[in-house]
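1st attempt posting a full record on here, be nice pls
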Amino acid sequence: MAPEFRKAFVVVEIAPPEDHAAAILSEIELRFQEALALTAAVSPESFANFARHLDPGWIEEGLLSTETATLRRRRLPADRMIWAVIGMALMRDRSIAEVVRLLELALPGADGEGSVAPSAIVQARARLGPDPVAWLFHRTGSQWGTRSAEADQWRDLSLFAVDGTTLRAPDSPKNRKHFGSQKSGSVVQRPTPKCGL
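the predicted structure (as tokens):
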């Protein structure tokens, strides 16, 4: 084993549990789990909470900058279809027609009804195209990403992603106690403890 790796394992062996990588990443993992739980729990009621964080001016700016315009008054204009796409992303377990209905995105017709045929929704989505949604994605990413990078730092570094790996730690009673021992299919212990980073 190369000397620099031996040095790293010695650090692992003598490091107290509060300095272990898992302890450092536990807060990040918890935040990630909370974010996944929030996304999974999106409902029409909570969609309004999400929508208040999205500047409506960005949607208008995205439509103008990509030259996507609704020339005639439609029941599903382009700005409403962007909201439909966002709703589809957040309410993945619902059909597109149900998302449009639940978020009340269709403008009322002559009869005062706000319902539209599913085929009209598909046509409106096709008219919108990918460009305004891509523009909005980049705009929100630059705004929210910068704010998040400033807020979520680790040792004065901006944190954008977390990845992990597994290292074999030297076999010692202290390391087996701290990292445990993985089983290989049955009750057979692996020859060395593994350290997840």
